[in-house]
């Protein structure tokens, strides 16, 4: 543990970002989970922030799966997972070729455009659901942005929101998808040299907070109405989109 990061500024941003990560893993305020790594990047380079977040994601994923996996929509997962894993491979092969702030800007613009479309022209009850190609394209984007900065939340929200799923079904589907995606990151991250002793020991120290965030989020998701659940998802997407767009113009 002597390799732990000791900078107080790091912990000032790490504590809220890790709690936010745990909350988002429960499906509650899920859009806000994409803010966790950019927040941590205020104190560290983006690759190191992503490396510290990966073990925390693993802990949160296990807890979310334990409580939410039975609520997942398997048909939707079959549309999401293959393309999401391809996105991970693309992220690995192209690591470092595209600056992180450019990726952030692209995701931010798409997120805000989708949210504006949802609010200005809300889908009718009889509107067709997103098809295999549209869902796969969003999952591909989610896999890629998740590899770069654990920022796959907004594209997945774009795939799931139009389906008007029950909150627990939404949370369960998201939990299974991201648990699978995050598990696929370990080998590439290790191959890229991101999982060193200092990052891993710091992650271990922060794990209880990530677990606590998941438990708090599951408690809230079971007690909040569908209407307010989706409002919180939309607020999360708005804040995430604005933050990612700001990162594009004013990179850390």
Automatic annotation (TrEMBL):
It is a multi-pass membrane protein. GO terms for cellular component: plasma membrane. Belongs to the 4-toluene sulfonate uptake permease (TSUP) (TC 2.A.102) family. This is Probable membrane transporter protein. It is found in: Cell membrane. The chain crosses the membrane at residues 45-68, 75-95, 101-120, 168-188, 200-221, 228-246. Keywords: Cell membrane, Membrane, Transmembrane, Transmembrane helix, Transport.
């Amino acid at each position: 543990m002597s390799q732990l990061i000791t900078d107080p500024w790091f912990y000032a941003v790490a504590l809220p970002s890790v709690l936010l990560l745990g909350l988002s893993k429960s499906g509650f305020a899920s859009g806000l989970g994409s803010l966790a790594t950019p927040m941590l990047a205020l104190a560290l380079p983006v690759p190191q922030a992503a490396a510290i977040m990966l073990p925390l994601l693993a802990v949160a994923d296990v807890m979310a799966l334990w409580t939410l996996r039975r609520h997942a929509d398997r048909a939707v997962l079959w549309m999401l997972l293959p393309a999401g894993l391809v996105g991970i491979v693309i992220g690995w092969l192209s690591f470092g070729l595209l600056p992180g702030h450019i990726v952030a800007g692209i995701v931010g613009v798409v997120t805000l455009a989708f949210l504006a479309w949802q609010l200005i022209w809300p889908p009718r009850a009889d509107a067709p659901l997103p098809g295999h190609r549209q869902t796969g394209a969003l999952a591909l984007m989610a896999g890629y942005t998740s590899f770069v900065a654990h920022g796959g939340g907004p594209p997945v929200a774009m795939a799931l929101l139009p389906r008007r799923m029950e909150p627990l079904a939404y949370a369960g589907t998201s939990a299974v998808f991201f648990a699978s995606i995050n598990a696929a990151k370990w080998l590439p991250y290790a191959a890229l040299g991101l999982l060193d002793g200092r990052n891993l020991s710091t992650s271990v120290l922060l794990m209880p907070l990530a677990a606590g965030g998941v438990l708090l989020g599951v408690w809230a998701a079971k007690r909040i109405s569908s209407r307010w659940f989706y409002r919180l998802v939309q607020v999360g997407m708005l804040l995430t989109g604005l933050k990612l767009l700001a990162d594009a113009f004013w990179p850390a």
